[in-house]
Design a protein that fits this description.
The chain is built from eleven helices and ten strands. Strands 7-6-5-4-3-2-1-8-9-10 form a ten-stranded mixed beta sheet. The longest helix is centred in the C-terminal third of the chain and has 17 residues.
Length: 270
Amino acid sequence: MVTWQMTRDCNLACLHCCTESAPGKALPGELSREESLRLAGQIVDAGVPYAMLVGGEPTIVPHFLEVAQALGRGGVFLKIETNGQKFSEDLARALSDLPIRSIQISFDGAGQAAYGKMRPGGKFDAALAAARLVRRFDLPLEITFAPTRLNIQDASAVIDLAAELGAFRFNTGRLMRVGTAAKLWDRLELSEEAYADYYALLERREKELAGRLELCFRPFSLSEQAEEVLQAPPAALLILPDGRVKMAAASPYYCADLKTNSLMDAWQAY
């Protein structure tokens, strides 16, 4: 699979962002429309079965839909990660013609109070409207929740909301100490006791919602995930907005630069 961070720019500046994305924070040298479409063609030609388009906020990239269509019409299943703030009916309609594996929308609160603390300037109602549009066009919906001191009280209610909206999966886990979250760690990090309570809540809600909503929270921490990856390395490339290719999101190592290397060069280096 390929995870493609299309931009570091975003229409929000979330406190827990793992990529330090924010308005006006595009990386220098982000891939142009022409470079992006060429890369999309390489992904199709390589027979990659699955691609995730993420950001920043991918839907604010001017050529986002062109890239999604190039991939989808080439037979690549797609996952789109969005905050939903600018998700429109026209976009939902266009995506409904593509092989979409999921549209993932972040809900870091069950209402504006917690949501607004986590996502300054963000509108809970806009995210809610986006989720309803996704389901209206019969697209598969995922909900993600990042637990912090500011919103942990809303966790169970967000799980309920995911079920009510018709999501097929609820994603969560320990907060990652990277990006903006690392800078605000003392303000955001839960205590070990709070994490234990949260894990117990997830196990309980998993049983209650079995067959209706998948709760995806294992591995729970980045270190647990790293241990799994060491035992069974995934066939996954992480492409940064400027074309560099990472081994993994939390790793500082790069294996290629797609401005000068091909996708297959990157794969061999990986």
